[in-house]
User: Fold these one by one.
Assistant:
Number 1:
Amino acid sequence: MQGDRRPSGSEADESTPLLDTRNAVPPSYTNTADTIVENGICSRISSTVLTSEEDSTLVTLSRVSSVPQGLEVEPSLERIPSAPEPNKQAVKDPEHNCPGDNTGYASRFINVSPMRFWLIFGGVLMGYIIGFFDSTLMASSHPVITSHFHASNSASWLSTAFLLTSTAFLPLFGRVSDTFGRKPVYLFAIAVFFATTAWCATAQSIGSFIAARAFCGLGAGGVFSMGMILSSDLVRIEYRGVYQSYINLCLGIGGCMGLAFGGIICDTVGWRGAFFVQLPFIFVYFLVAAWTTPANLGMKRARSERMTVLQLIKSIDILGSFLLVTCVTALIMGLNLGGNVYSWSHPLVISSLVLSLVIAVIFVRYERTVERAVMPITLLSKDPRASLIFGNFFGSISVNTMVFNAPLYFQAVKLATPTDSGLRLIAATFAVTISSVSTGFLITWSKRLKPTVIIGDVLLLLGGCAAASMDVSTPDILAMFCVSISSLGQGFSFPSLMVSVLATSEQDEQAVATTTLGLWRNLGSVMGVATSSWIFQNTLIYQLQEMVTGPEKEHVILLVRKSVQAIAKLDPMHQAQVIAAYAAALRVTFLSAAVWGAFMFLMHVRIRLPRLGTKA
């Protein structure tokens, strides 16, 4: 049939000139770079640009429904390169919507340009400076505040209220920001910090001021935890140590500013002015955070599962959060009030500690059954993260044992004034600042985590032993050095532990891992103060009973236990006896810091930590 007749070569050549095998001339084409966008990812591809004559030929070819059998496709067509698939791994820059630079300085950051990162991170650093200025400001201003309200016996509640909320709610920020995204939670924390700082400045009673400090702790805790979470979201783990060093530096700056200028501000403009002066800086901090923080940061789960706001709220571990907050609150109240405000046998202290233990058992059993637990039990049950977190807890006890009791050594044993004892601790402040900043750069350069962790652990152990050797005859310079060893260890170990926990966690676990580590570090701080106070007070009572003599023995013991300043007013005999008793009690207390440092070392020496990529 005519419809089935196979065309001859000449007919085929006439109808499809591009298939002419007799006078074929290979078409020329030029490769140029072009850009396509697929699924929001920019990719560079190679495209083919043809001449107008060749373009018309291709149009003619496109009209042929099929290539007749027996004819070969023009060989030159086989050389036309096909467009490669877009690079799905290209790093997207949300600002410019173009491929990120995977090499050089920009490779340090995740999904953000260097300029955008520094705008965000600059706000984070600003928050740390303000937050630590506020916390250390209370150390110098609380006597003035309690005297203003005629409530000196309530001084301990100023720090207790702040510590309760800043610690108890810490893990919630990680999980809630995983649910709703980083930006709204971050801005909420800053707004609470601003409002409660204003409340502190305008409080009209001691009860109102304590309540303000409690809510201020909630805001400050959110600022600190969200700052760490944002850093882990935006910086690759290989370079996290460097930026952790910047954070540590700002912590030192904020703390020093609070100690240095807190008293001056209170003396010049009053204690209310010390809070009012923070408000403009917090407001600017809020504006910077609102402007620079990406709105979609941390929204991975909400986007992937397309959950509504109500579904997101229901997905939060509300019962677990309540149990955790209640447990931590009861524990901190018992530890902070016992031996400080009330005796350890007081019903409130005992009931608080028992309640925290019971709730802790219930919390652990419940969290094992929850899909998205506020504190995943695997963090506390599987190495290496469990050893890192608990070692961090023991290290925090050791550090705070030293920090809390070192001023007492200079005032009670060396008879220095509070101002002089503070100046003698400057060396320790410099030690922790220098070592913490250096640690970040060492981790980034070596790509190794364990060496700096172990160095810090050993220094904490040696620092406790060195301080335990101090007595009345120890020169001031040597005493300052002994106290600084533990601070040096803190600077090496704590930043390393933070990076280690993040390096051993998946990306979607890093927020809750960060806040869990912070929670146990804060609990260690409370335990350090509570346990060292208990050890010191009981040892001091024993030593005073053994060393103080004479008919005025009981009166002298009662006097020097109430006020350290009373030691300088004693007669030479009793003064020497009391100083010897204080020195002996402090040696035992500092030795306990060495024991906690040893526990920290044992927790960390047996674990293996990953290396952060390949050393450049």
Number 2:
Amino acid sequence: MATLCFHSPSKPISYFHPKSKPSPPLFSKVSVLRCKASVQTLVSVEPEPVFTSVKIFAPATVANLGPGFDFLGCAVDGLGDHVTLRVDPSVRAGEVLISEITGTTTKLSTNPLRNCAGIAAIATMKMLGIRSVGLSLDLHKGLPLGSGLGSSAASAAAAAVAVNEIFGRKLVREELVLAGLESEAKVSGYHADNIAPAIMGGFVLIRNYEPLDLKPLRFPEDKELFFVLVSPEFEAPTKKMRAALPTEIPMVHHVWNSSQAAALVAAVLEGDAVMLGKALSSDKVVEPTRAPLIPGMEAVKKAALEAGAFGCTISGAGPTAVAVIDAAEKGEEIGERMVEAFMRVGNLKSVACVKKLDKVGARLVSSVSSFGTPFYFSTAFYLIIVLETYRGAGLPKDGGISDIALVRLLDNSFKGGLNMPPAVKHEVIHSAYNLHITRVTIKIQSKEEQQVVRKAYRDIRLASALIGVVIWRIKSRKSK
């Protein structure tokens, strides 16, 4: 029988300790590491911080999806890790400090070289060429270790995006995946099927690793897809589960898995949850070697299918089992049956939840601007500038402007040369959908801030009024 040699993608990761003076006594008990990683600097000029603090959320992920081992994964809504990153003058320039770890586990190392969030932050700093600013990082774990839900990738994704956000989004998401891969290579292996969807959201196909080539797969907006995630009280470390994989596979299994992987991609693009489930359940290479290592997994899969799931497999390296369905109500019943099977056959307690596909990926939760005011202050200021400018040009002042019209006006103002940082444009337009322009309010925390806001608002109104007069005069001349 013909066989194929099986090798998981691998790539060495190297870090170099700088020859520098010892850290100040303040940090003698906390590990710091200068920004040195094997990735390359991608920007020509070191960027200045746009924010002094950002908080980022990165979602859980389901990797492999059966036959998509190491090249297909997706993000799951509602579960994940948070990273809070701050510009910290007390941290030596070019270094990152992990100051606190909270959440589902606190036994992770605070040494950035040994922590997935720290490694990703360092790699991103290297890509940005950060040498003049020190950063401190807090990690809140929402995902348990060894759960099969991309715990390490969620931390790495949140850290990489946090560094990029704090310096004004100079890197695109595909570049941030490279930073996250530095972390994954150190912690669980050089594979992107967790880190890519954690950063980019949705389904992501890894077409190639050298060079990295990522293909986002868009699940149709008008179709529903739910994941039933059942996590037993059992730890399955990724390195241990990867060690169980076969080094050779029969040609017939290679052909079978290839066809099922192709069906997976087609199902995602067509929004066909039934076909997706069938393909997801059909792995003949990885799942058969890992399932016996997770007590009760085979019975759990059988219970899910009998309860009406379209498909079921191991999420990532396990031990979480994932089933696919197109309605949340069905998912709850399927989850109960899967929990019962884990206890009955595997003697393992477990918890079930039903989650939708996360189409966004790692994102900004909150931030503080480099001027020390919350970001909604600056967003509101920009909104007021645009509002007053267009009002000065003759738009109604009674609130008679729709959200859609507002977004169009905002977009036109960008095209017209309004000086607004690219990182702010997205936030402004997003705010425009959620805030009616005539109801913009600014939350003021102190008397000092009240004075600053009043002065800024007065200056904005004066400037926009002058702009309005200029526009009116130009229009008047053209009409003559």
